[in-house]
Design goal:
Largest sheet: 7 strands, mixed
CATH superfamily: Acid Proteases
CATH topology: Cathepsin D, subunit A, domain 1
CATH architecture: Beta Barrel
CATH class: Mainly Beta
Strand content: over 45%
Distance between the termini: 8 Å
Structural class: alpha+beta
Number of helices: 4
Shape: globular
Strand order of the largest sheet: 2-3-8-4-7-6-5
Length: 137
């Protein structure tokens, strides 16, 4: 089990952030305990396609704006220090949300890690310690 600090994200934007890499490129993910899917921004997928496997599954998903969109499902390995965790994402156009986060906080978010990631990896979020423990066993 690995423990990571959430303190920087909480201080910057009052939300837990986790930095991971895909194919050696660092990406910032917002941990969203209310999200039913893990989400990767479409611009990230477009730029790093070689780091993802398209699963061929498409489905309709309601976005934060309340509209349904057809989204693709992809799989990749997220690297956190010594951990490589296979993770499935829905590819979603997050341009408006990313622009808002950049303007508001000076930070680019590349996706969201939701309930599937937290459950699959037996994550424990400790807000007293401002940390997340990620354990795949």
């Amino acid at each position: 089990m690995m423990e990571y600090s959430l303190e920087e994200g909480i201080k910057k934007i009052r939300m837990p952030l986790l930095v991971a890499s895909v194919n050696g490129i660092e990406l910032t993910f917002l941990i969203d305990t209310g999200a039913s899917n893990n989400v990767i921004a479409s611009f990230v997928y477009d730029q790093l396609q070689e780091g993802f496997v398209l699963l061929g599954k498409q489905f309709k998903m309601m976005g934060v704006e309340g509209n349904y969109n057809t989204v693709a499902t992809v799989e990749t390995f997220l690297s956190f220090r010594n951990l490589n965790i296979k993770t499935t994402f829905s590819v979603v156009n997050l341009n408006d949300a990313v622009i808002h986060m950049q303007q508001e906080y000076g930070l680019q978010v590349h996706g969201f890690l939701g309930i599937p990631f937290l459950i699959d990896n037996k994550c424990i979020i400790d807000f007293d310690k401002m940390s997340i423990k990620i354990g795949t066993q």
